[in-house]
Specification:
The protein has 424 residues and is an alpha/beta fold. The chain is built from 16 helices and 15 strands. Helix 5 packs parallel to helix 6, helix 7 packs parallel to helix 8 and helix 13 crosses helix 14.
């Protein structure tokens, strides 16, 4: 069967290319601008803009998170710590079709007591948000998730030496990790100062081992100093934007640019850390109609662990990087519906992140590139992120023109995942 999407303005992942017909056959885009076959199923997209499926470059997710993401046109989530490596996907997601695609780092490299231990329950019990999700599952899915949770929170070893770092990387690769995550977090901006951090020597060994396996090495960093350390050990990308702005920022920006590293700023997270809830997003009917009360409550909350920070500094930081030629990717660091991890929600926060990038000084087209083609390119997802012949038919049709008004990305009319039209 061939589907013809007609009369749509097209943003192809790089540029707005005018009104053209897009043909889908099976899971693939087979033509852009060609003739409509006689027996094609026609979707009239008059008044709308067709976008590549959006990509969130930083999440911690679940089946429900992946489902929410797809409802907002986010067709791929990139998990930066969690259970959805290749092994995890095969065990937990088999046969589930109404969810976004996912890639994962598996477990992150951290010392005993290091980040993110300060965010986890201290008694070893399963958190309430996990219990709520278990109630919705079949017995088979429930057992798979419990096994993953035990691995994530009970059995994942901490690292104390070069040898353990190498073994840890190799275990993540064995589990089918798509990239490797390392933690450089001493806790000052998370109201947990003094968290242990591994030595540069150990972290460098982990990065080199990741590269030996042809895997990207990505660093959790939240300060300029941590970002400097990450670049010095050779990481490929920073999973956050430094929230402070010391006098050495111009030198750091040059270091990042010269290294060719990408940055996923997660401005929505930094805003939450500073103390700003995402109330405007939560109150948007295009958002509130698609999320549970728990997620709305979470959006209306914030981390609020670094109130002395300023979004103006964050905007200046991200624009300095952007102007220096650093690839900026859209990511959110969304995880679970807990108010203390507030200001974030799967899917919805991708749209909020693009809005904040535009507020910082990006053009709407640049923000859209950061949520599509740039992320796909940096993570080697060469089958998505663009509307071109031969690409996966991961597509979002929105009302209006987000290449001019970025908030139009929330006016979702249709979503396709691997050529299959999502049923609302």
């Amino acid at each position: 069967m061939i589907t013809a999407i007609i009369n749509a303005r097209i943003f192809d992942g790089e540029n707005e290319i005018g009104v053209k017909t897009v043909l889908i056959e099976g899971e693939t885009i087979v033509s852009i601008g060609g003739e409509v076959p006689e027996h094609a199923v026609i979707i009239d997209a008059e008044g709308g803009t067709l976008l590549p499926g959006l990509i969130d470059a930083h999440v911690h997710t679940s089946v429900e998170g992946l489902r929410d993401a797809l409802n907002f046109g986010v067709t791929t989530e990139l998990e930066m710590m969690g259970g959805f490596t290749k092994t995890g996907r095969e065990g937990q997601l088999k046969g589930i079709e109404d969810i976004a695609d996912v890639r994962s780092a598996g477990m992150g490299i951290t010392p005993p007591g290091g980040h993110p231990d300060e965010l986890m329950p201290g008694d070893g019990e399963i958190p309430d948000f996990v219990l709520k999700e278990l109630e919705k599952m079949s017995e088979e899915d429930r057992n798979a998730m419990l096994a993953a949770h035990a691995h994530d929170h009970g059995e994942a070893p901490a690292v104390t030496s070069r040898e353990e770092a190498l073994a840890f990387v190799n275990e993540q690769v064995r589990q089918g990790a798509d990239y490797i995550k390392i933690m450089i977090e001493e806790g000052s901006v998370l109201a947990a100062p003094g968290l242990p951090v591994l030595s540069q020597d150990i972290l460098r060994a982990a990065v080199e081992e990741a590269h030996r396996h042809r895997k990207l090495a990505i660093a959790h960093v939240l300060t300029a100093e941590a970002s400097r350390q990450a670049i010095e050990i050779g990481v490929d990308g920073l999973a956050h934007l430094f929230i402070d702005r010391p006098d050495t920022t111009p030198h750091l920006v040059k270091m990042i640019a010269d290294a060719g590293a990408f940055v996923t700023p997660c401005l929505v997270l930094n805003s939450s850390i500073i103390g700003n809830p995402a109330t405007i997003v939560a109150n948007d009917p295009r958002v509130s109609s698609k999320l549970s009360p728990e997620w709305i409550e979470t959006l209306n909350s914030s981390f609020s662990t670094y109130p002395q920070g300023s979004m103006e500094d964050n905007y200046r930081n991200v624009m300095d990087l952007h102007r220096a030629g650093v690839d900026i990717l859209v990511g959110t660091d969304v995880s679970v519906p807990v108010p203390t991890l507030g200001g974030l929600a799967h899917g919805a926060s991708v749209h909020h992140e693009m809005q904040l990038l535009v507020e910082a000084g990006f053009t709407p087209i640049e923000a859209l590139q950061s949520a599509t083609s740039k992320t796909a390119r940096r993570f080697g997802l060469n089958d998505r992120g663009r509307i071109v012949e031969g690409a996966r038919a991961d597509l979002v049709l929105v009302d209006g023109d987000p290449t001019v008004n970025i908030t139009d990305t929330l006016s979702i009319r249709e979503v396709w995942l691997r050529g299959k039209r999502k049923v609302n």
